[in-house]
Design goal:
This is Inositol-1-monophosphatase. The chain is built from eight helices and 14 strands. β1 and β2 form a beta hairpin. The structure holds D-MYO-inositol-1-phosphate. The site of D-MYO-inositol-1-phosphate has 16 residues, from β4.
């Protein structure tokens, strides 16, 4: 019911704040060097796929809080699932599920690059319904609940940037800021998927590339190192487009909820070809490929401007 959803939302937001506080405290200890145990970094699938004690402690806290309050819900957490469980399609279509990354941007965290956050998604019938993303070092809390809007720090409604943008997808990517993640799979070769995607972005930004002559080039290409922050920044309007191949559900569940509620689109399309076609389907969690497009600004008549 609506009331139950409200209660779960309130609970999820408080959980995100508490978990974010744990992340901040751990980061402070880590970088003042008073707690050496927490400096340990363990490798998972490869030397760039890492986990710290903080990931595990924060996930244990979130998992036990959810299990105490909602024992019948399913819990999916990055650290719980990476220990040998099947990593195929994890989100239940029938049981309400929590999809949690206790520390998204672990590499950033270990390098004190401030783009790291706790990411809590709540899924109903396979649809991301509540999203809480809290980046404590930046003091940015993104929250959303289906039908109740998406918010920054609980007061500013997303998207923040409402300038008219070229109608998506037809005129993209002129004047856009793209975000593109490198992921963790470094087995790729120059003719492989990752390289081709990044190259296509670079081409769109280059004067001689792709569509440079057709009204402008990509303004910039960014890579935050946190998939969920990429989605939150796309919801904010800071990014126009984000793409990554190879994400897991916990990397994106909360961010997808926030972006969709802000009016953006998430699909499992392939750039750049699919950005130019109208055939864009809403993504289903469990896809490994994500392309996010920011919420559109108001129409020309609303702004009195002639577009860009
Ligand atoms: C990773 C980050 C990174 C993305 C990877 C994720 P983690 O999550 O979101 O930006 O490229 O696909 O796995 O390991 O820091 O929680």
């Amino acid at each position: 019911t609506e009331q139950e959803l409200d209660e779960i939302y309130t609970f999820a937001v408080q959980l995100g704040k508490d978990a974010g506080k744990m992340l901040l405290e751990a980061a402070q200890l880590r970088f003042t060097g008073t707690q050496t145990a927490d400096l340990e970094v363990e490798e998972k699938d490869s030397s760039v796929d890492i986990v710290t004690k903080t990931d595990e402690d924060v996930e244990a806290f979130i998992k036990s809080s959810i299990e105490a309050k909602y024992p019948h819900h399913k819990f999916i957490g990055e650290e719980t699932y990476s220990k040998g469980a099947s990593r195929s399609y994890l989100v239940s279509e029938t049981t309400p599920s929590w999809c949690v990354d206790p520390l998204d941007g672990t590499v950033n965290y270990t390098h004190l690059f401030p783009m790291f956050c706790v990411s809590i998604g709540f899924i109903v019938a396979g649809r991301p319904t509540i999203g809480v993303v809290y980046a404590p070092f930046l003091n940015q809390l993104f929250t959303s609940c289906r039908g109740r809007g998406a918010w920054l720090n609980e007061t500013q409604r997303l998207p923040l940037i409402r300038n008219p943008i070229p109608p998506m997808p037809a005129d993209a990517p002129s004047g856009c800021v793209f975000s593109c993640e490198w992921g963790k799979d470094r087995k790729d070769r120059p003719d492989g998927n990752l390289y081709r995607k990044v190259e296509s972005f670079v081409n769109m930004a280059a004067e001689v590339g792709g569509r440079g002559g057709k009204g402008g080039m990509v303004h910039g290409i960014r890579s935050l190192g946190s998939a969920t922050m990429d989605l939150a920044y796309t919801a904010m309007g800071a990014f126009d487009i984000w793409w990554e191949g190879g994400c897991w559900e916990w990397d994106v569940a909360a961010g997808v909820a926030i972006l969709q509620e802000a009016g953006g689109l998430v699909t499992s399309a392939n750039p750049p070809k699919d950005i130019e076609t109208a055939e864009i389907q809403e993504v289903k969690l469990g896809s490994r490929l994500y392309l996010a497009i920011r919420p559109a600004g108001p129409s020309k008549t609303e702004t009195g401007r002639e577009g860009q």
